[in-house]
Design a protein that fits this description.
The protein is globular, with a radius of gyration of 21 Å. With 320 residues, it is of the alpha/beta class. The strands form two sheets. A six-stranded mixed sheet has the order 2-1-3-10-4-11, with helices on both faces. Strands 7-6-8-5-9 form a five-stranded mixed sheet, with helices on both faces. It is 46% helix and 19% strand. The longest helix has 26 residues. It has eleven helices and eleven strands. α2 runs antiparallel to α10 and α4 crosses α11.
C-alpha cells in the first residue's frame, strides 16, 4: 500500500512538473477577468499588465470585463473556469473580503474557491460631490445630511466604494440614501449628471469628470493625501478622526491550479509589476504597488475580514 502511494505521489509530482515546464503555451492566451466595467481603475491596471507581459515575452494576454453584482459575476466566472492557469481573476478587497460581509449571498467562497497568486496594488479612494450640491468639505455634507436625514444620495458600484461612503454616515452619525450601479463609470456619470449627490471612486475614474467640471473632490479616504490630489485633505484630516479606508487588489486563479503554474504566474506578474506601463498607471491612479506573495495575500484577506466584519455590518445597516 505504501509503495502504491509513493508511486502515485511520484507520478503526480512528475505530471505537475511537466505542466509547469510547458506553461504558458504561446498559442494560448492568458485571460485576465476584471469583474468591473471598462475604464475603471482596475480595468486600466489589468490592461497595463497585459501590455507589459505581451511586450516582454510575446505571450498573448487578453482582458475580459465581467461586471455586475459588485464583482461577484466575474469572480464566479473565474471560479467555474478550468484550473489550468489561463484564466486569472483581477480580484480586490470587494471580491475577496467585503462581498462576503456586505451582500446577502454570493455564488462563490472567496477563500475556498481561489488560490492567490500575487499582489497588485493598494489605493486610497476619493469622495466626490456632483453639481447637484455645493459641498466643499466633509462638514458641509454632514451638516446638510443632519438637517435633512435621508435626502442626500450616494452611489456605488462595488462593496469597497459603498463601505467607504457608508462609513462617512456611520462615523458622522447621519443617514443618506444608497443607490447601487452596475459599473463605476455609470455611477460617475450619475453623480456628474446630478442624478445622485455623492460618490466614492478611484482617481482615474474621477479625473475626466473633474476636467469637465461635473465632479469635485471632497476628501481622500486613506491615511494620506492622494499624490494626484495633494491639495485635497483626507476625510480624517477634516474631523472624522475614526475614519480611514484603503482598498487593494491582487491576482487569483481557481482552486486546483497546479502549484508550479501558480508559481510561474506569480513570477510573470511580479516582473510586469516592475514594467513602465504598470508603474505609470499605478502612479496616475495614486496607487502603490502591493508586493505580496500568495501567503501574504491569504494573511491580508484574513486580517481584513476580521477588521471589517463589525464595521461593515453596522455601517451598512445604518444606511439602509
Amino acid at each position: 500500500m505504501r509503495i502504491k502511494y509513493l508511486i502515485l505521489t511520484l507520478a503526480f509530482a512528475l505530471s505537475s512538473n511537466a505542466i509547469a515546464q510547458t506553461f504558458p503555451e504561446k498559442a494560448r492566451p492568458i485571460r485576465i477577468v476584471v469583474p468591473f466595467g471598462v475604464g475603471s481603475g482596475n480595468d486600466l491596471i489589468a490592461r497595463a499588465y497585459a501590455q507589459a507581459i505581451t511586450e516582454d515575452s510575446g505571450q498573448s494576454v487578453v482582458v475580459e470585463n465581467r461586471s455586475g453584482a459588485e464583482g461577484a459575476i466575474g469572480a464566479q466566472a473565474v471560479r467555474n473556469a478550468p484550473a489550468d492557469g489561463y484564466t486569472v481573476l483581477f480580484g480586490n478587497s470587494s471580491t475577496h473580503v467585503l462581498n462576503a460581509l456586505m451582500l446577502p449571498s454570493i455564488p462563490y467562497d472567496p477563500v475556498k474557491d481561489f488560490l492567490p497568486v500575487s499582489g497588485v496594488s493598494s489605493v486610497s479612494l476619493v469622495l466626490n460631490a456632483g453639481p447637484s450640491t455645493s459641498f466643499k468639505t466633509i462638514n458641509d455634507i454632514l451638516d446638510a445630511a443632519r438637517a435633512s436625514p435621508g435626502k442626500y444620495t450616494y452611489g456605488s458600484a462595488t462593496t469597497s466604494t459603498r463601505l467607504a461612503m457608508d462609513m462617512v454616515g456611520y462615523f458622522g452619525k447621519v443617514n443618506m440614501l444608497h443607490v447601487p450601479y452596475k459599473t463605476m463609470m455609470q455611477a460617475a456619470n450619475a453623480v456628474g449628471g446630478g442624478e445622485i449627490d455623492l460618490l466614492v471612486t478611484d482617481v482615474l475614474t474621477a479625473i475626466p469628470h473633474y476636467q469637465a467640471g461635473r465632479m469635485r473632490p471632497i476628501g481622500a479616504t486613506g491615511a494620506e493625501r492622494l499624490l494626484a490630489l495633494p491639495d485635497v485633505p483626507t476625510i480624517k484630516e477634516q474631523g472624522l478622526t475614526s475614519y480611514e479606508f484603503t482598498a487593494w487588489s491582487a491576482m487569483f486563479v481557481p482552486k486546483g491550479t497546479d502549484p508550479g503554474v501558480v508559481d510561474t504566474l506569480a513570477k510573470i506578474f511580479a516582473k510586469a509589476q516592475e514594467s513602465r506601463p504598470v508603474i505609470d498607471v499605478l502612479k496616475n491612479n495614486s496607487q502603490r504597488a502591493l508586493k505580496a506573495d500568495a501567503s501574504e495575500i491569504r494573511a491580508l484577506i484574513d486580517t481584513e475580514t476580521r477588521k471589517w466584519s463589525g464595521i461593515a455590518k453596522a455601517a451598512t445597516t445604518k444606511q439602509q
